[in-house]
Amino acid sequence: MDTSLFLAKFWGWYLLIFFFVLSFNPRRIQQIFEDLKDQKFLILAAFAAIIIGLLIILFHNVWELNWKFIITMLGWTSLFIGLGLFVFPEPTTRKLSVLNLKLVQTIYVLLFLLGIFLLNMGYQLVLL
């Protein structure tokens, strides 16, 4: 299977699942922000983000102006957020805490739409 198609399916399903979990339990968003104050959780989240970002960058560093670029940007974003959480934990968590619940919910709706788009690209459901 093509790496781009695999990653489109992975990120599409991940974003959809994450959207529905946060939609049915919006208190989880606030809980995640509270958990980022715990150093153990912060380190684990940073390592997970760094590993995911590096794996995507190593296997899929595509800089073409098409849908594959979205996957590359997800990898780079994950890497930079992970590095920010690991190297500069206080400033990064302070910047994240500025986000309010409504803004986060808006962002997750946009990520839901991105997930639908990536699933469409991965499974070729509707030809665009």
Number of strands: 0
Tally of discrete structural domains: 1
Radius of gyration computed on alpha carbons: 15 Å
Measured by DSSP, the beta-strand proportion falls in under 5%
Q: Give the distance, in angstroms, between the N- and C-terminal Cα atoms.
A: 21 Å
Content-based structural category? mainly alpha
- List the quaternary state of the chains: single chain
- SSE order in H/E notation? HHHHHH
- How would you sum up the global shape? globular
Write the layout of secondary structure elements.
Layout (H helix, E strand, L loop, with lengths): L2 H22 L2 H9 L3 H21 L8 H20 L1 H9 L3 H23 L5
Helix pairs in contact: 1-6, 3-4, 4-5
Give a structural overview:
Helix content is 81%, strand content 0%. With 128 residues, it is mainly α. It has one domain (3-123). The longest helix has 23 residues, at 101-123. The protein starts with a helix and ends in a 5-residue tail after the last helix. The model has no long low-confidence stretch (mean pLDDT 88).
